UniProtKB/TrEMBL annotation:
Highest taxon listed in the record's lineage: Bacteria
Keyword Iron: no
InterPro entries: NAD(P)-bd_dom_sf, P5C_Rdtase_cat_N, STEAP_metalloreductase
Pfam families: F420_oxidored
Keyword terms, alphabetized: Oxidoreductase, Signal
Annotated signal peptide: 1-31
Protein's organism: Stigmatella aurantiaca
Region feature (Disordered): 140-159
Domain Pyrroline-5-carboxylate reductase catalytic N-terminal: 49-140
The UniProt record lists the keyword Phosphoprotein: no
Record-given protein name: Pyrroline-5-carboxylate reductase catalytic N-terminal domain-containing protein
GO molecular function per UniProt: oxidoreductase activity
Amino acid sequence: MNSAARPRTAGLLGLASALALIFLPVPSAHATGKTAPAKAPAETVKLRKIGIIGSGKVGGSLARLWVKAGYEVMLSSRHPEQLKPLAQQLGRKARTGTPREAAAYGDAVLIAVPYGALPQIGRDYAKELAGKIVLETGNPYPQRDGPMAEEARRKGTGETSKALLPGVKLVRAFNAISAVDLNSQAGREGPLAAVPLASDDTHALKAAAELVKAAGFEPVIVGGLERAKDFDVGTSVYTRVLTAEELRKQLGIPD
């Protein structure tokens, strides 16, 4: 990480420290044998249903992991009938629908689409997504997504996605891990693989942390959406499989 970016941590350490005390493990099929470092809070985030917009490699992998952990999911695409085999494979806790239906269905919504599709999603489903916790995983690639991707890289995906998805409780999540590692590293033995998170909303961070744990990974709060650029494409931690301790060290975040 560029040393010039480190001063930005100062205003966010309080947020990260406070959140570290309120994360709870959630029921998961992944037994790690590790004692959770967090203490049980008086308040938990109750999520049962997750709408998934974009059910490809990342969305489909997370659907499998969350169903195993006991969540209900709605897989969606522009052609939901093509997702029926996957839903049948996942069992009674999985169903299919259109992106609009998935946006309305979820207590939280995962958006896992090419970054260039994000502006249209923000426009088309603004009503259904309003006020919801949204985990957004996309990464801008100019060769695929065009000029908007170049601007997103300059500005940072946290601030860009915030502008493209107004009115939601946005969390940048699962963008810095490959689909292959989502499947191979989930619930591994020893220290879990870390997933960095960034959001301006404390409640959304709590919910996202639960979902990360349910998928078999360790959440690491990097800070507000401004700091999402620290795990964007091209950074030292992008698509690297790191423990929480290693990730914090790379990004200059204290334990």
